[in-house]
Structure formats: C-alpha cells, structure tokens
Description:
Order of helices and strands: EHEEEEHEHEE
Strand order of the largest sheet: 2-3-4-1-5-8-7-6
CATH class: Alpha Beta
CATH architecture: Roll
Number of helices: 3
Shape: globular
CATH superfamily: 2,3-Dihydroxybiphenyl 1,2-Dioxygenase, domain 1
Amino acid sequence: MAGEVSFFELGVGDDERARTFFGSLFGWTFEPGPSDGGGFAIRTPNVRGGLHGNDPGARPYLFFEVDDMAAALAQVRVLGGSVDDVDLGGGEESIARFGRFRLCHDDQGTPFGLHQPPPEG
C-alpha cells in the first residue's frame, strides 16, 4: 500500500557484530544479499530490511512504498524536496528480489527513502 513503511536499511561499521547484536536483541535472521550488491537481507515478522557493513557513519533509513517510482520522485521535486543522485537499486538481481530504492529529502532537508517493490511473481 502506497505510503506504508515497506523497507528499512541499516548501515553499520561491522556487519558481523550488527548481525549478532540485532539477531540477539530482536530474533532477526539474516540472509546473504544478492551477489551483485552484498550485504544481508533482514527477516523480521513484519517489514523487510537490509544491512550493509563498512558504513560506520550511516543511520537507519525508512523507505515508504510507492507504486510508480518516477512519478513519486517527480512529486518530491514539485513539493520542494530533493532526490539523491545515487540509485540504490543495484543490479537486475537486486531489483528483481527487493525492488527499486531512492533516497530523498523533504522540503526541510529530512532524509527518507522511497521503495517500489518488485512485481509479484
């Protein structure tokens, strides 16, 4: 459903320590990410997530679901927000498995993400 939190991403310095910490704290399980993007998929009871290492300055990002990434990015700009230049989608394997992702900022500079899930099937 558009506007719902559909994905979260954790950037950490040491992915092994983070998997131990969050796995012990919340009972999350981790699966290796796609071969072209690395990292790990996080399995939680409700919302899918991702974890990547070698990023000690990162913070958690929330991604909100959209049906049409191009239209949503255009609307962000119309409303005075901005879209980061980096496409987080990775390669075709990652897009097929997880969907498309873009980081944005609202008109006050607050970071958030947009996520267009992969097609069903």
